[in-house]
Amino acid sequence: MKLSAGLLAGVALAACASAPAEEAVQPLALCQTMVTGDSGLADRLARDGADLSDFCACFVTVEAGLDADTRADTHALMRKIIEMREGTDRSTEDVAELLEDDRDGSLYGIPEEHLKRGAQPVEDSLTRARRDRASCRTP
Fold first, then answer.
1. Which of 45, 71, 108, 112 has the fewest beta carbons closer than 10 A?
2. Phi, psi (rounded to 5 degrees) for 50
3. What tens digit of pLDDT does each residue of 42-97 get?
4. Could you give the count of Cα atoms lying within 13 Å of 124 in the half-sphere of its Cβ?
5. DSSP letters for 59-110
6. Is the separation of the CB atoms in 52 and 38 below 8 Å?
């Protein structure tokens, strides 16, 4: 009995070791993918002299300081926004409103607590891009 349990554990470990590792998230690429084609967001930023590049540069700066849980929620939220915008004419803001209406996460898989935690860094990045975009650029 002990031998078969040890054998099963060994097989399970081998299977995990041979499974492809999840690709590391590249914050800049994730942000760029999320905002591509979002003219509403581009217009909002342009009113303050910023653009989507400024927003994503600020996102990278903000994202670098996140704790693991907030980072995970933010990345999950951004992936969901990308998924929900794909093939539609929805803006990032349109999708955010849909997600906010789904308080328990039963429709889109992001409960309100995770949505709030994940959205805050995105909002912080937007504010920073609009108010102090130069602080997000490396000299």
1. 112
2. -110, 175
3. 999 999 999 999 999 999 999 999 999 999 999 999 999 999 999 999 999 999 99
4. 18
5. HHHHHHT--HHHHHHHHHHHHHHHHHHTTS---HHHHHHHHHH-TTSTTTS-
6. yes
Q: Note the Cα 108 to chain centre separation in Å.
A: 14
**What 3-state class would DSSP assign to 25?**
coil
User: Six-digit token pair at 111?
Assistant: 């409960």
Q: Read off the pTM.
A: 0.80
**CB-facing half-sphere around the CA of 72: CA atoms within 13 A:** 6
Residue among 33, 40, 44 at smallest CA distance from 130: 44
Reading phi first (left if > 0) and then psi (alpha if -120 to 50, else beta), residue 65 is in alpha
Q: How far is CA 117 from CA 15, 39, 51, 76, 111, in A?
A: 34, 25, 24, 11, 10
